[in-house]
Specification:
The structure is a single chain. The protein contains 1 helix and 10 strands, in the order H-E-E-E-E-E-E-E-E-E-E. With 168 residues, it is mainly β. It folds into 2 domains: 133 residues, Beta Barrel (Porin); 33 residues, no CATH class. The strands form 2 sheets. It has an 8-stranded antiparallel beta barrel. A hairpin with a 5-residue loop joins strand 6 and strand 7. It is elongated. The relative contact order is 0.21.
Length: 168
């Protein structure tokens, strides 16, 4: 919670200092993961055998099962962009809340940019963010974005994310 408040405070400071740019509201939505996660489950099984002479023998054995578990692919949240800065909050792929603060690197074309910054809610408290973004205009002020999120080691595979936005 403290990290989220810090990010929001920094966002308002950046927003106030960048007042000449267009603003956008981004509704985070769906994602597709290029693989499922594999989870190992250990079970300890206790077996009892009763012999005719009244002796009870108890043995313990461990079984390990691997199963695939899907990631959360409904990443609902809200983001705000002001000029080259973006801040947002969403439910991430590992079912935790994430907040991010990013600088948008414009690549010279209106439909492609890279968001780089920091994000919370994964394996470490705060970690780096690098997300190539493709923006497509839909109707007047409406646009959609597709994100290609690189693999986060031991957390999530390469992921494709989709969002919808409104440009003021």
């Amino acid at each position: 919670m403290k990290q989220t408040l810090i990010l929001i405070t920094v966002m308002f400071g950046l927003w106030a200092g960048n007042a000449h740019s267009a603003d956008s509201l981004v509704f985070h939505g769906l994602s597709y993961h290029f693989s499922d996660k594999t989870v190992r489950e250990k079970k300890i099984i206790r077996e009892r055998r009763r012999y005719s002479n009244g002796v009870v023998e108890t043995t313990l054995r461990t079984e390990v099962h691997e199963k695939t578990v899907p990631y959360n692919e409904e990443n609902w949240g809200l983001g705000f962009e002001h000029g080259n800065f973006a801040v947002g909050y969403f439910k991430n792929s590992v079912d935790r809340n994430s907040a991010y603060l990013a600088y948008i690197v414009r690549m010279g074309v209106s439909w492609f940019n890279v968001k780089t910054g920091i994000i919370t809610g994964y394996s470490s408290r705060v970690q780096g963010l690098f997300v190539p973004t493709f923006r497509f205009g839909l109707y007047k002020h409406l646009f959609s974005e597709a994100y290609l999120i690189p693999e986060i080691s031991d957390v999530t595979p390469t992921t494709l994310g989709l969002s919808l936005g409104y440009r003021f």
